[in-house]
Amino acid sequence: MRIRRQAGHLSWLESDLLVVAYRAERNGQPDFHGYRAAQLVPGAPSRQSVYEALDRLATFGLVSRRWEDANVHVEHRRPRRLLYRITDAGRLAALPAVLGARVTGRRPPGPLTHGRLPPPAPGFNRGDPPVG
């Protein structure tokens, strides 16, 4: 299923992911991983769609990302996770959805500040995410 987004607007999935990130931070767990986010978004078409949407949110500077500490995944005997965290710009973009609706899985796209997506974050590299 292809998720459509009007130019300058968030898709319903991107909006729901920002709400998930906002709520994670409010619950004292600001870092989250894509697999967990996919579980928290009802109606997400696939985990791959969630990861693609998180990549777009990082491009727009609405979430930051970093690799978890190397010793954590060894200790838990699982692959290393890419962790996401909402940014100040992401909090502002999430507010309409946080104040006006719960995560439903289907919602018309909502405009960001002034109806435009912010430019990519300074120094953003479309290659591998920064290692933290």
Write the layout of secondary structure elements.
Elements: H1 12-26, E1 32-33, H2 34-40, H3 47-59, E2 63-67, H4 70-75, E3 82-86, H5 88-100
Antiparallel strand pairs: 1-3, 2-3
Kindly summarize this structure in a few lines:
The chain is built from 5 helices and 3 strands; from the N terminus they run αβααβαβα. With 132 residues, it is mostly helical.
Please explain how this structure is put together.
The protein is mainly alpha-helical and 132 residues long. The chain has a domain at 12-102: Arc Repressor Mutant, subunit A, CATH 1.10.10.10. The chain contains five helices and three strands. The protein has helices spanning 12-26, 34-40, 47-59, 70-75, 88-100, and strands spanning 32-33, 63-67, 82-86. The chain has a three-stranded antiparallel β-sheet. The chain is globular. It starts with 11 loop residues before the first helix and ends in a 32-residue tail after the last helix.
Pick out its properties.
132 residues; mainly alpha; Arc Repressor Mutant, subunit A; globular
Q: What fraction of residues sit in β-strands?
A: 5-15%
- H/E series: HEHHEHEH
Query: What is the terminal separation in angstroms?
Result: 33 Å
Radius of gyration: 14 Å
- Report helical residue fraction: 40-55%
